[in-house]
Amino acid sequence: MQHLSIDLGTRSYPIYIGAGLLADRALLERLLPQRNVLVVTNDTIARLHLPALLRGLGDRSVTTHSIPDGEAFKTLDTLDTIFDALAAAKLHRDAAIVALGGGVVGDVAGFAAACYQRGIAYLQVPTTLLAQVDSAVGGKTGVNHPAGKNLIGAFHQPSGVLADIATLRTLPPRELRAGLAEVIKYGLLGDVAFLDWLEHSLDQLLACDEAALEFAVRRSCEIKARIVAADEREHGQRALLNLGHTFGHAIESATGYHEWLHGEAVAVGLLMAADLSSRLGWLTAGDVGRVKSLLERAGLPTSAARVGAARMLEFMTMDKKVQDGRLRLVLLSRLGEASLRSDVDATKLHATLQQFAGP
Amino acid sequence: MQHLSIDLGTRSYPIYIGAGLLADRALLERLLPQRNVLVVTNDTIARLHLPALLRGLGDRSVTTHSIPDGEAFKTLDTLDTIFDALAAAKLHRDAAIVALGGGVVGDVAGFAAACYQRGIAYLQVPTTLLAQVDSAVGGKTGVNHPAGKNLIGAFHQPSGVLADIATLRTLPPRELRAGLAEVIKYGLLGDVAFLDWLEHSLDQLLACDEAALEFAVRRSCEIKARIVAADEREHGQRALLNLGHTFGHAIESATGYHEWLHGEAVAVGLLMAADLSSRLGWLTAGDVGRVKSLLERAGLPTSAARVGAARMLEFMTMDKKVQDGRLRLVLLSRLGEASLRSDVDATKLHATLQQFAGP
Q: What DSSP state is assigned to residue B323?
């Protein structure tokens, strides 16, 4: 079992990474003192992992609430069903939510915890690679709006994150690959040595080698923890974690959140960020080729040909990083180092959009 | 013009109280640096006060969004219409909401500001007495849920409060009286000299005397500011501000939020808290008579005969102050001093419920 912590003063919390943690009663006792719990999950995850978690939760009073699976259900309506479940179980401020599932479950359940009775505790128990390395860590919660992804939400830190590597063995291969897009993101934005390691270890990761996955999750969380601790509410460098995401969100919004997995859209977004960075003279064509080849080896898409440049730009201007009407983009000053730019040449941006999203 | 401030470290903000502040451009320039603004209001208030506010907002880019009037519309659905308006106006994190109206407008608009893009700035411009002395101050925002009032919400402090006393002249008398219930609450829970002053000045307040209203708003805000500064997120003494509210919320919930004004339900709640306090030996019958007489002189109700004790108790157990299954009530240790109790004798509570809410 690996252990690290997110250093946020009174809102600090631990992340535990390892195989078989779901049923670890002693660990759950430490992370979750609350006796009354609502587990938010979905039917697929519940079938696979709820029995182990219930063993871990021991003699607590537990109610389970399933929400529909998929980004298309990350809505205010789904959120409202969680409020109904919390009220029906007569839970109060001293109760906690446990979010058992992927990014959708974690984001919506975390947002419910942020709003119910103006804020109750919650524990993140991510069961997808994407959630373990990204969405479960850092306190961003929320739902989508027709005008944009995660447009409605709150910063609400969990009281802990429990990343059980064993759950990744039950992931559909497509979801494992989507999670690898976020892992690759950390190498690109914060640690070129980790990027090297990923190029060497990709086959082991794809084969669900436990030690490789544990290291990948841990290193990703470390990079994220460092950035979040320095800028919890995204006034500055936390925006770097959105490398590839302004492009990726636009792909998801333009296609209605059901065609693309989040990580797949991010994969294309990472390559677009690399491409635009090379047009601006910061990366070499070789660097871009390296990114593309790693994404391809991971089985991830590298173009969004049918979306269209104009439509992508429309959604990009609704992005939360827009400031004073200027589009701000996270780009790569070199492999392993990202920077936030609001002065990107419109012609070069358009060239990248056209190349990857079509006319 | 009076001026005080809520001392909350980096979240501190000023409250301005006076006649004619809505159109004060210099003041608004200081309170609201944002250039892009969504004004949330309702049709009645817009007709009366929007023109003055628009003069005050000067050359900003302003969009106006009306929500339906009344507590019954303090819902997630209404909240969603504000998100739609924010997105349609393409507002970003650097925009602000201005809440122009009573408690419903302020609570819903403030909650929208808390959630949109995970939090944008907002200015409270309360136009009812109740909102000026209570709901606009202290950062509690939220909406109702069928299972309870304000069950869904956030702590999100405004960047300022602008209480224009002149707007109170346009209030229906019933709403002015409802606001006086909250003013009387401050005397009861925090300052017996203010209670004396209210007994002497009630006729001037009911006649909308400007100086009397300005003092009443200022003194109420001072008492609230002191308590909120000491306990922003209601871990302890902030709960004292809920004097009369556990009973009052139950009346509102049981009657579906359309029959009673919030302040009217609080008035009955204040008297019930006084009655129960006297049953516990803390107040004299004379004290209770004094509270009842002041409420009656203010034209406020002093019983909720048709609600029923059992139904009230049911809603009271959903209250946010319930902890470890124990009902916590704010009672009066003497006139001018409240205290939070979780050890109230069930028989005595039931006697109070029966006396004021019927069997």
A: B
Look up residue A96 and give its amino acid. Answer: A
Instruction: Please confirm, yes or no, whether A262 is among the known catalytic residues.
Output: yes
Query: Tell me, what's the pLDDT at B219?
Result: 97
The answer to whether the beta carbons of residues A245 and A208 sit under 8 Å apart is no
Name B319's Cβ contacts closer than 8 Å, sequence gap at least 6: B148, B246, B249, B250, B327
CB A7 within 8 A of CB A225: yes
Cβ of B324 and A94 within 8 Å? yes
CA distance, residue A77 to nearest chain B CA (Å):
9
Tell me what pLDDT residue A324 has.
65
CATH architecture of B178-357: Up-down Bundle (1.20)
pLDDT tens string B319-351: 666 666 678 999 999 999 999 999 999 999 999
Ranges of CATH 3.40.50.1970 domains, chain B: 2-170
Q: Provide φ and ψ at B314, rounded to 5°.
A: -55, -50
* Residue A3 annotated as catalytic: no
From A97-111, B72-86, B294-308, B315-329, the region with the lowest mean pLDDT: B315-329
Which residues contact residue A352 at a Cβ distance below 8 angstroms, ignoring those fewer than 6 apart? A272, A275, A276, A279
Residue span(s) of chain A under CATH 1.20.1090.10 come to 181-357
Q: What is the CATH number of domain B2-170?
A: 3.40.50.1970
Question: Which residues of chain B does CATH 1.20.1090.10 include?
Answer: 178-357
- Do residues A217 and A287 touch, judged by C-beta distance below 8 A? no
Task: Convert the pLDDT of each residue in A112-163 to its tens digit.
Answer: 999 999 999 999 999 999 999 999 999 999 999 988 889 999 999 999 999 9
ipTM of the complex: 0.90
Top residue of A79, A92, A107, A318 to mutate, by most chain B CBs within 10 Å, is A92
Task: Kindly indicate whether the domain formed by A181-357 is annotated with CATH number 2.60.40.2550.
Answer: no
Contacts of residue B317, defined as CB under 8 A and 6 or more positions apart, other chains included, come to A90, B327
CA distance linking residue B359 with residue B348, whole number of Å: 14
**CA dist., res. A149 & res. A111, Å (int):** 14
Chain B CB contacts of A320 under 8 Å are 92-93, 117-118
Rounded Cα distance, A5 and A129, in Å: 19
* B148:A76 CB<8 A: no
Please state, in angstroms and rounded to a whole number, the distance separating the CA atoms of residues B174 and A192. 68
Residue A244 has, within 13 A of its CA and on its CB side, a CA count of 25
